[in-house]
Structure formats: C-alpha cells, structure tokens
Amino acid sequence: MESVYPVHKQNPALYAGFWKRVVAYIIDNFLRVVVTVLIVMATAFLGGTGFEDEEIDMNAVDWLSLLLLLALWVLYHPLFEASSHQATPGKMTLGIKVVDMGGQRLSLAHAFGRHFAGFLSYLSSFLLYIGYWLAGVTERKQALHDLVARTLVVNGGVNPTVPGHTTVAPKGIPAWAIVLIVVAAVVPIGGILAAIAVPAYQNYVVRTVVMSAISDARPVQLLVLEKQMAQGAIPQNDSEFGREWPDQIADGKATLHLMQGILLIRFTSQAPSALVGDTVGLAPYRRRDGNVGFQCGYYRPEGAILAASSGDQVTTVRPDWLPAECRAR
C-alpha cells in the first residue's frame, strides 16, 4: 500500500499537462520513425546491389526486419519508463516522468502493462480519441491508459506532499484491467501480424517455386550445351531433343521450352496465382573464356547473347522473387 498523489487542484504544478505530453509523444514518435527508417533501409540494402553476389534468404531478411520493428514498438516505452530515468527520451526532454499512484518507479511488468493499456486509448479514436483527451480533464491528469494501469505522469522535481490526511491505494494493475488490456491488444496485434505474415509467407512460397523451376532447368541447360557442342550451334527448338526434353518442371508448376535458342520458363495454373503466366528467360551467351553460359532473368552478362533475345527481354517475374544471380547488376 502506497500514498496516493494529490489531485491537480491541490498541487497544480505537479502533473504534466496534456500539451506537454503531446510534445513528448511527438519527440518519441520522431525517434521511432528514424529508427524504423534505418531498419527499412538496412533491409532494402540486403536485397539490393550491396549483396547481389551472395545468396541472401530474403524471406529471413523480411522476418528479421519485422521482428526488429515489433521489438521497437513493444520495448521502447516499457524499458525507458521502468528505467532509473522513469521516462522516454521525449519525456526526459520535457522534464516529466511516469510513476505509480504512490509516486514510485514502475516495475518492468507494470511499465509493460501501461504500454499495452495504450491500446484502450488508441481504440477511443472512434470517439475522437477521448482516451487521450482525458489527460487534460481528469483530476490527476491521467489518460485512459493511466487510469487503467494506475500510473501518473508528473513533472520532475515537484514536491507532491500536501497537508491533510493521506489516502492509500494498491500498487500495480488490477486483474480486470489486465483482462481488458489483453482483449484490446489481441485484436489489433493479431490483425497487424496477419497483415504482415500472410504476404510474407506468400512471397516465400512464390520464391520457392521460382527457385525450384530455375533449379530444374539446370540439367536441361546441359542438354542444350551438349547439342551445341555436337552440332556447332545453339539448338533453336526443343523438338530437336525428342523425349529427352521435360515439358514440365517444378512439379508441374511451370513448363520449359526452347524458343529461338532461349530457354523459357512459364508458370502454369498450378503455381501460386501471383506467378501464373509469368516467365523467366535463360539465354545462352559467350563468356570471356570462350565457353557458353546461360544468362538468367534480368542479369546482363558482358558476353554476346547467342539467342534471338536476352533473358531480361522475356522475363516478367518480379526481380525480388528471383535468386540473386537472376537480378540486374
């Protein structure tokens, strides 16, 4: 049991006002945006030219970025407000801090509870954000999440002592409030995670199918090279190979044809819907050492193309769905 802080009219200088808290929030939000941009830029760099020569699992990179952003959102306020500063950088800048109803430093669990109680204030957006506006009108300048979590936002260095009897209140968050916070948090968090996880999983499936098709085409490249060595020219049509030629690859999710010297992978209706009808071109070209290799997708080799068209001219699959060796450099 701890002493309860006085109401605003007993000590007007004690509590941080609504607009001071708004400015602190703007500062904190700016800092989080800066960190978010840095994380996104790092992710983009991993998928861009800086790592083109390496096989990077972009699905893992996407998930790492997601986890970092989620950790930033979950940990920012609780870790700072449960620290010895009792305040986020924004609050520190304005000289304010978060305390419990007895004026004591929050435990880490209590700080997490206050943070997730913020969902209740956020959900009040349907009522013109009244959950936040309460910080300007309640007797201890508490927003909705402060009322639920039994916390106060006070000006640092102001003496809270008032004459008269002392009332008492239990510390921590009541059980009913914890249930309410969990219910309020589950729905939006579940929706956010689903909105991010579903596309990420779909991209993973698409990339796996594309990788499988290109991998299945490699033995056929050897068939083409053997025919080229035997007859002194690149074969122009897959009909020259008879039964040796596999019409379908990637477990039927793609077909493979030789058209005017270029290997063309076309994704069938069995592939993910985002891929159906898209193509990847594998064009033979003369390497510097005189041997023949295959240009994949948007990659542009220095040697001369030996087919009627280059791979990038017939490839329609999104570059980020292709392996590193098939992207433009």
Keywords:
329 residues; Glycoprotein, Type 4 Pilin; 2 domains; five-stranded antiparallel beta sheet; rod-shaped
Structure, described:
By secondary structure, the protein is α+β, with helices and mostly antiparallel strands. It folds into 2 domains: 2-173, no CATH class; 216-326, Glycoprotein, Type 4 Pilin. 44% of the residues lie in helices and 12% in strands. The protein is built from 8 helices and 9 strands. The chain has helices at 18-46, 58-81, 89-94, 108-123, 130-133, 144-149, 175-231, 311-314, and strands at 2-3, 96-100, 151-155, 168-169, 248-249, 254-259, 262-267, 279-286, 292-296. Strands 5-6-7-8-9 form a 5-stranded antiparallel β-sheet. Strand 6 and strand 7 form a beta hairpin. Helix 1 packs antiparallel against helix 2 and helix 2 (58-81) runs antiparallel to helix 7 (175-231). The longest helix is centred in the middle third of the chain and has 57 residues, at 175-231. The chain is rod-shaped and about 100 Å long. 30% of the residues are buried. Mean pLDDT is 82; it is low at 49-56.
